[in-house]
Amino acid sequence: MQLLMAAVLAASTLTTPQLTGPFAVGTFDVRLTDSTRADPWQPGKNRELMVSVSYPARRTGQQAPWLGASLATALDPVISSPAYLGIPAGTVDWSGTRRQARVNAPATPGRWPVVLFSPGLQTPREFYAAAADDLAGRGYVVVTVSHTHETVAVEFPGDRIEWGLMQDASQATMKKAIDARVADMRFVLDQLPSLHKGADTTRVGIAGHSYGGYTAAETMADDRRFDAGINIDGAMEHTGDDGPYAPGKAVTGGLDRPFLLFGGDLGERELSHVDTSLTRTWADFWPNQHGWRRDVHLDDGAHLGFSDLQWSVPQIAAIPAERRESLIGTIDSGDSLRAQHDYVAAFFDLHLKHRGTRLFERPRHEGIRLVR
């Protein structure tokens, strides 16, 4: 009976959120190699990355898989494990679940602002597909990046899987990770004109979740080509497990360009510049920030609810209610997604397209609070 149930569950696919912008979305994956840089995790090799590019497109062609087949096979035991979702392996057909974006769909003509996105520590870029596709559908070229050998697993052409090589969370390891990430993002921006002819690299934003939010801030501190950035629920430090406190350059010196802090909750604690219980870095950054700044909070939204778990977890009946709450919080999933997508788009519309918005003066979404 157990084997039969596993076989039934293996065929279970999920439904990705509908796009909210005026454009359909195309997407493609690209392997990039930086011949000028050794991989910090494997110094005998050049740095090699996989990125996904999402862009305004014609509504034609096949919808892209959420995860590639080889990556889905590799990750299913990890995602399903008690340390993560706590469900039987094979419950979800990850590669059978389809994004709204369509593979290699013909691009809509135009010059589009660019947003680069960095995922959480050890997290594949694929787990932010819905956010990337939604922003692309509002008129952006969005590039998500997997940070090879830190990310738990990255799928390269030919069904090759490169596994993560992080062995600890010491300060030295965390510093290696942030330095590699910043170099990755700068390299990807260098390559972008050859990847999509509609990418307007005179208007560039950067965003990231968790350690990706730290990546966004540090990349802006190092590279003035990035005009505006968002840190989504991420401490801006590489202190690691063995301290001392090691905040980033953006924290100690601030930035002179727009930067948004977008935080969530961890139990009774929140990530904001007025609550230092999770990290001091937002409070330390706040008075040093010289450019436009806002601190937006998603009440009752948990850390992993800023990833694709926000829409996928509620569809997986095998996840116990208590585990579901710890992963994505208690906010209604639809309300959370609307708020996340609208605030990210409004920020980049304001600072890359120069379109006015009142969302940062008066919240209009369930769960959103402006932290003063």
TrEMBL record:
<feature type="domain" description="Peptidase S9 prolyl oligopeptidase catalytic">
    <location>
        <begin position="175"/>
        <end position="240"/>
    </location>
</feature>
<protein>
    <submittedName>
        <fullName>Prolyl oligopeptidase family serine peptidase</fullName>
    </submittedName>
</protein>
<dbReference type="Pfam" id="PF00326">
    <property type="entry name" value="Peptidase_S9"/>
</dbReference>
<dbReference type="Pfam" id="PF03403">
    <property type="entry name" value="PAF-AH_p_II"/>
</dbReference>
<dbReference type="InterPro" id="IPR029058">
    <property type="entry name" value="AB_hydrolase_fold"/>
</dbReference>
<keyword id="KW-0442">Lipid degradation</keyword>
<keyword id="KW-0378">Hydrolase</keyword>
<keyword id="KW-0443">Lipid metabolism</keyword>
<dbReference type="InterPro" id="IPR001375">
    <property type="entry name" value="Peptidase_S9_cat"/>
</dbReference>
